[in-house]
Design goal:
The protein is an alpha/beta fold. The protein is about 15% helix and about 30% strand. The termini are far apart.
Length: about 350
């Protein structure tokens, strides 16, 4: 499409005013990363570390921040540009103009196994060897890819996509517009065992898992149901691959959990929380609204609203952790300095 057509399509989805390079109107055939772009592609600039790429990129068009210097550089190179407050967001919308995720046409494959008591909405796709058990409810426009298993009594909301080989366990409730990726397990038994002199007594997990609307669960992630009550993940929360959510956990709205995050049983997470890769959260811990935990942070106890935390257990405020990390590499030098000071002080008269 022509650049002017692309801009019109983006303006239809983006309410912020887009500044546009004058006169230039190249053909745009796709999107690319700024340092890998070629003629005919659209890319974007985000952050100072990529600003220098304006002078070297082969892209025919760029989405730029509100930066007149970058705009002048692009014009000098005859690169068309759009300027927006959030270039990455506009680029994300541009991708949808060139790419559509695979979505099969509605229909039920003859090898799918569907219990007669299941309630099916309109315009469903149910793929080969999928198993829909008793009393399951699937909403309209649901997409069930091959080898998915939905256990008895589970509910899946409208337009939700269940990717191949994921499992929805009994009585789990998955909201509308959710995406459950391949290998994920929603509603599996929580890790509940009671010690006795004879060994472990298994505590049945009679609770449920609830995923509110717009939740996305990454590949091979697991969300456990509790012995009683529910495990709940709030609206618009996103889980990366290999995330474990223990029994009875409650996660708020619009959170993001990166790969290999683990939440032990009974954890409470507020709204808009960001947990980076390999963050571990101990049993019954409470994390306030807007908290950010950097990679490999270990969380115990309670974290107040709005904190940015880092490090092991207990975690530290991020700025303090950065300072202590910088000192860590100099510990041997600091130790030798302290030893010299101790020796010097030890040789001084007692009254000093």
């Amino acid at each position: 499409m022509r650049f002017s057509e692309l801009v019109q399509a983006l303006e239809a989805t983006d309410r912020s005013s887009l500044a546009i390079a004058p006169k230039l109107n190249p053909d745009i055939v796709g999107v690319a990363a700024v340092r890998e772009a070629s003629a005919g592609t659209l890319s974007y600039i985000e952050g100072d570390q990529f600003a220098s790429a304006v002078a070297t990129t082969q892209a025919s068009a760029l989405i730029l921040p509100r930066n007149p210097t970058l705009q002048e550089q692009a014009i000098a190179r005859e690169v068309a540009w759009i300027s927006a407050p959030d270039p990455r967001l506009v680029f994300a919308k541009a991708i949808t103009l060139f790419y559509r995720p695979f979505r099969p046409e509605p229909g039920i494959h003859p090898s799918a196994v569907i219990h007669p008591s299941a309630k099916l909405g309109d315009n469903l796709y149910i793929g080969p060897h999928a198993v829909i058990q008793a009393d399951v409810e699937l909403g309209s426009d649901v997409c069930v890819h091959p080898n998915v298993v939905v256990y008895p009594g589970a509910k899946v909301g409208d337009r939700t996509v269940l990717h191949a080989n994921c499992v929805i366990h009994e009585r789990a409730q998955v909201g509308a517009d959710c995406v459950i990726h391949s290998g994920a397990v929603v509603g599996s038994e929580g890790f509940g065992f009671v010690p006795t002199p004879q060994g472990w007594f298994k505590m049945d997990q009679s609770g449920i898992v609830v995923l509110e609307d717009g939740v996305e669960v990454g590949c091979n992630s697991t969300i456990d149901r509790p012995a009683v009550g529910e495990t709940r993940i709030g609206q618009d929360t996103k889980l990366d691959n290999l995330v474990h959510v223990g029994h009875g956990v409650r996660i708020g709205r619009s959170c993001a959990l990166a790969a290999q995050v683990g939440l032990a049983g009974g954890v409470t997470v507020g709204d808009r929380v960001l947990l980076a890769g390999q963050v571990g959260v101990a049993n019954q811990a409470k994390i306030g609204n807007g908290v950010i935990a950097t990679a490999k942070t270990g969380i115990h106890g309670e974290v107040p609203d709005g904190q940015v935390i880092s490090g092991g257990t207990p975690p530290l405020p991020n700025k303090l952790w950065l300072r202590t990390s910088a000192v860590y590499g100099r510990l041997a030098e600091i130790y030798q300095t302290v030893r010299r000071l101790e020796k010097a002080l030890g040789d001084r008269p007692k009254h000093d």
